[in-house]
Write a structure and sequence with these properties.
mainly alpha; MetI-like fold; 9 helices; elongated
């Protein structure tokens, strides 16, 4: 949840910079998109392992590693959502004298809000599932339960943990479907 929250805020900010239609600075858009493409190319477990080296064992490394990859994902997703806003809409608001940040907060962000909710729901589900793997490499969480259960040949506990991960992921998905319908 923390990785999702931090990444949501960072993703909106960097998505705004990466979108070609918000600031209209092509070099900035290309730079931000290229940088976050690199971050996305490195799998989440690698980021978590790097954070384990930097921060030590524990959930902080898991949150930081998830945050790097999730921010990169959100930056690309949100930039694409922001770029789908018709240019005519943006020009009409600019004609009233609104600045770029005002156009973003009053036109782009509200128009892309339902897409942002959908991306958050999908990424929360992915992050939750990835936590199972990350705990196995020392980042804590439900993956730690998996690793200990499997090492101790306690397959009942491991099976129950897998079932709970599935049930939670399913509930997260259903919850975000209902939330998205509210904001349509």
């Amino acid at each position: 949840m923390l990785a999702l929250l931090y990444s949501l805020l960072l993703g909106i900010f960097f998505g705004m910079l990466a979108a070609r239609n918000v600031f209209g600075i092509p070099a900035l858009s290309v730079f931000v998109q290229s940088f976050f493409s690199f971050l996305r190319a490195v799998p989440t477990p690698i980021w978590v392992l790097l954070m384990l080296v930097c921060l030590g064992m524990g959930p902080e490394a898991g949150v930081a590693g998830l945050c790097v990859h999730t921010t990169a994902f959100f930056t690309k997703s949100f930039a694409q959502s922001f770029e789908e806003i018709p240019r005519d809409t943006l020009e009409a608001i600019e004609a009233t004298g609104a600045g770029r940040v005002s156009v973003f907060t009053n036109a782009v962000l509200p128009a892309a809000f339902s897409q942002i909710i959908a991306w958050c729901g999908m990424r929360l589900e992915v992050n939750f599932s990835e936590c199972a793997i990350l705990g196995m490499v020392g980042a804590g969480g439900v993956g730690f339960v998996f690793a200990n259960s499997l090492q101790g040949y306690d397959y009942g506990t491991a099976g129950l943990a897998i079932l709970l991960v599935f049930a939670t992921a399913f509930l997260i998905e259903r919850m975000f479907v209902k939330v998205k319908k509210i904001f349509r």
